């Protein structure tokens, strides 16, 4: 399914990632924390097209004062906001988040101890951590002097209705995860599996074309197909980008999209003089033609 030359590397990455998830699951279960693994990027609510964070399904529990407990997961996530950043060595569209969520049970100190212990089992100690200045005095002692600490006023998290201070973990200049304290009573931890893998094993994350192909297959395997709206449109957009980059994908959806673009381009060339004054929205709504793609291809 992947471009020539990337399949072996991707398969190795999958095996390594699977081992990291198993290690994380083991430490969670050893501490009596329920663990679930979710490989679909389908969203858990209507606020996003795809699941963008491991905490998404637990948002109602953060604001329910009657609920207490702790859970953990590995959640497949997809964030289209990083589309133009992929290939820089650190940004991905599709990634897996290792999460720990506690509702009025664990403290920030408990969460810090947990993650320092887990990272220790991986042979990884953060180069430094950051803490919001408002929590610097209170949270610094929780690290026990084992890691350098820097204040950072950006250490805040909010989803619009729930917010909290956080502390972030860095290694080799890359943020590998953070611990958020929503409402001051809960814990929301997220560590990026692929970034941990990259640092521990030196797995490269700079293959933009491979990232696009992997993301497409994740969307397809989550039950979506190309279309003109929402998730289907995102999928179609990624298929077009793979084609424009000179890549290929061994899947019927890719073949169909390439043929579809040829038909739309021919249709645009046939109609453009007659409708030269029409807006991009009209072209898309009336004929399904995205002018940004058509014009790029006709100018090449």
TrEMBL record:
The keyword RNA-binding applies. Keywords: Aminoacyl-tRNA synthetase, ATP-binding, Ligase, Nucleotide-binding, Plasmid, Protein biosynthesis, RNA-binding, tRNA-binding. Belongs to the class-II aminoacyl-tRNA synthetase family. Gene3D superfamilies: Bira Bifunctional Protein, Domain 2. It is an enzyme of class 6 (ligase). Residues 15-250 form the Alanyl-transfer RNA synthetases family profile domain. Pfam families: tRNA-synt_2c (PF01411). This is Alanine--tRNA ligase. Its EC number is 6.1.1.7. It comes from Rhizobium indicum. InterPro entries: aa-tRNA-synth_II/BPL/LPL, Ala-tRNA-ligase_IIc_anticod-bd, Ala-tRNA-synth_IIc_core, Ala-tRNA-synth_IIc_N, Ala-tRNA_ligase.
